[in-house]
Structures are given as C-alpha cells and as structure tokens.
Design brief:
The chain has eleven helices and twelve strands. The chain is α/β, with parallel strands linked by helices. The strands form three sheets. The chain has an eight-stranded parallel beta sheet, sandwiched between helices. Strands 2-3 form a two-stranded antiparallel sheet.
Length: about 325
Amino acid sequence: MTGPLRPEQLGVTLPHEHVYINMTRTTPQDGYLNVAEEMAEELALFSDAGGQTLIDMTNGELSDYAAPVGWSDDLRVMQQNPDTGSRSIANVLATKELSESSGIQVVLGTGHYYNTYLNKEWFDRNSTNKIADFLIGDLLDEIPGTGVRAGIIGEIASDLSHITAAEERSFRAAARASRETGAMVSTHAASFPTGLAQLDIMVEEGVDPSRVVIGHADTVKSVGYSLELLRRGAFVEFDCLMTCRIGGNLVLGQIQRRVEYLQTMIDAGYADRILLSQDVCQRSHLRALGGPGYVFLFREFRDLAIEAGIDREVLDGIHRDNPRRAVFGE
C-alpha cells in the first residue's frame, strides 16, 4: 500500500488476513472489524513478533462499510464500488493509514466473495471478460479513487460443496486477470474439498497451478485433499488457525490435527508449497479478546509444532520464503 515491493522486502508474511472487514451479512454479532485502535494494537503485536508483511484478503463485497465508524459521511466512499465491484475507497484508504502508522507492509487483494454476498444483477450486467478487466484495472492502474493498486487476486470464494454459476464466473474472471497480469490467485474453499474444482476452472482458463493458492484447506478433514492439491501443483494454505485459540484458551484438538497434516505434507516433500495464516476476520479473533491475533503462528503454534518434530527452519521458510514464492511466482 505504500509503494512497490521487491521479493526480498516481503520478509515474514501472513498470506491470508484482514485488517478492516464487514462480514455482518453472515456473522452479525462478531464479523465486523472497524476499530482503528484495536487493529493498530494487533499490528503492533505482529511487528513485535518479527512480522513485516500482511496480505489483506478483504475483497469487494467484504469492504462495504469496512472502515472506522465515521470515516466518511459519503456513502459512495464507504460502499463497494457499484461500477467496478472494487473495494470501497474508505476500506482502502483507512487500511493505508494503518499500514503507514504501524510500519507493517500491507498488500491488498481484489476480487469477489461467495454467492451469499454477490450482487447477482451486477454479475448479470457484466460479462466475464468485463469483470476480469475490472480486476486487471485494480492490479495495474488503481483501486478506483484510492491511488493504491492491488497486489494479488483474492480471496475468490465458493462456500458450498459445489460452485454456483455466479461464483464460477468470478473464478473465470480471476483466472483471466491472473493470466493477463501474472498475479497470484488466492481462494476461499471452506469445509468442502471444492478447491479441486476451483483449481480445475482456473487451469482450464490457462492459469499455471503454481499461481494458485487454495485457501482454508485445513478446514477439510482429510490430508489426502491437501496432498492432491499439492500434486496438481497448487499452493495449499492452512489459514483457519483462528479456530485454535478461543477465549484465551488453546483448542488442542484443532492444533494437533493441523500439526499432523503439516508433518505429512512436509514428509511428502511439499514444504516449499505450504502457507500458514490465521484469517483474523472477527472481533473474537483479536489477540486482545482471547483469539489468535496475528501472532498465534509465531507463539503457541510454533512451540507445539517444534515439540511435535517439525524443524524450526522449515517453519521459518513457510513464513518467509513460501509467501514470496507464491506472490512473485518464484
């Protein structure tokens, strides 16, 4: 958000997080991060833990009113762009302010969420190629009205055991934008093994699997699913570690399963294509409120993973080298 980054400047990176986000359509009591002071404290903890870069996956739909209360009285600034589907101006500029004040490098995603959040009329009015053009504009020109470019495509989402028609168009548009720009595509595929179908769509559109990150893979309770994605050449992201620390308490069953899957993937030779993150997207996920915050990976999870036999240098590579490979296509 503060200017171009070279690969060596990324450093320790969280590849799937949110700073400001509005998920109240599906999580009305908890799914709203819009308090600047709280987010500044969380970013400071990340910095203290050695963190340097955060990839913010708040997409167009999740950016609606996703900025501090009172940030602007102009609804056109606070709302998702009605023409291009881009992130709201308020979301982008408020996030930029936090990036500048905290010293944390923030890379923005662009794209569309899952069916419940999508404006079907907008999708009907715009062809797949036109939607791709809007994404390309966010990446190469600016997110309209902000002077800030997106750095990756994501999170592109489907949320059921199947991909809906509108979601498929979103994935095809993302793939075409990736093919045009070389940008990484990061997805949302929760609970069901739909990442395989997501990957199929993008490969069909001509995207190299190595430019695709299948997100939330740790929510699918089968390490075979993750291994198949890796065999096909994609990055696998275990990013739902927000379920591992709730109310200040560790949820050991959630942690142990992930550590076991992680060890299996490492033993299979895929240590260089694994990504880890917490996906902070609700107030209860904040460290100050007993959640993982942006630091669980570097504190409790790291200790337990090393205790289970995972090499600390492998973990260092997952936090530093793998995000660089994914973002820059190394």
